[in-house]
């Protein structure tokens, strides 16, 4: 007994969890009763009426073959209090129209119940539930379905739940069934108008006229997929729609055979026969036989389409007809979809049960645009091929002219570029010679006449700066490995003169890194100042310089084994730190210009370590 209670508790908990996670209720079982009245304002029958259990989907041609007017469905269901006060009832598919009542309150309907009946056979319906109508506990939902002898009345499983959940589902279905078909109809009508305009310009190409007529008839016929209220009675409209399908199919098949030059002359009279006799027999057929007559002619049209496909296939294989190959693919898809729709439309006429893939969706109208686009593409390609044939020589000539013109432009551009480069080089050489002959000679004299090593170093540093500024243009980019070689040579020369050994090391792919002129000048001056400090103040027995890059940052490390930082000496230059502080402040300023960081700290060898790190992005700072 305890186990039974535990199992019941688990089941109830699971049901509650499902209800919490899935607030939408799907109603698939109902009670059904034939409606004595067909008016839209008819109220639901009482509970004492002859209600019979009925599962959904319910197709009246199968479950109630004698019923053609209207019937009521009753759904009883339980709900728990919810957080969303705005509820809705969603009818995904029905035929032909419906009115909805909930707990004795009229919710809404799909339009007219009197002839001509509003057509919602391909239109989903969504009705908002007035607040307070849906009550916690037991509820009763009534659906009044209106049918007609010329249609196939039905009702599919419906849903009730929060509008915020059901509305996106409704909008998706509305887009697939209504909006998409409206767009396809507009596209097909546009293709038809285009082909008609082409035929008016070339009357001898009658295939364009056939195709234009079939496209315009199909665009008009496809209105049945999304129109709700029509100006004719339901019987007249159904006859018109089914008859226009025969006309459209015959016109289309004839146009395919003619413009693809696929033969099929014996088939054309049979196709035209369906376009004439089909509408006539449908108009004369009694109400009870209307569905059977339309099913026969639709099957006849399907056979005609299959025969047309066979002629196109023969032309594609035997005659290597390129246009026929494309049409075989498009028409093959259409024939398969048409067979599916015919089985859906006529399943009640066939013995046994039939269950199809996508059992409740008509597909032909989704494939028809594919066929029209294929035909339009072929017709357009013919004009394009003829036009291209006449324009080919002109295009080749224009291409040669453009090629020669482009080559000349490239040549002139290269000449201008070389002239500018030569002018820059000549100007740089002139400036260098002038500075070298004048300022350079004076600085060189100061190097040899200096009364102290510090003055000589200062003059030598100024001379090297002069050479760097002159030899490196601000618009140039310099490979880091080449610049590093110059820096190393300078450091080795200066330290060798001071009898201080140098250990130089590098890491990273320096040959793949480029530096801007401000970076080269400022890093070189930081390195030069660091070496000068070692020579002047460090009393070092050796210097270690490491230069490298990881592709994103540049790192320069200068270490010595000299006296290092004195007690109380700051690691960075500060105002008032004496004459030596000016050089340190210059080093800090240059590092800041480049967006980098300069550190001074005790070296592992016991002396001083100077570390410069900066990003490799081009610095806007001037030297």
TrEMBL record:
Residue numbers spanned by region Disordered: 567-586
Keywords: Kinase, Membrane, Signal, Transferase, Transmembrane, Transmembrane helix, Two-component regulatory system
Domain of life: Bacteria
GO molecular function, one term: protein histidine kinase activity
Keyword Transferase: yes
EC number from the UniProt entry: 2.7.13.3
Leader sequence segment: 1-20
Chain ranges passing through the membrane: 183-200, 207-227, 239-260, 267-285, 297-317, 324-343, 363-384
Name of the featured protein: histidine kinase
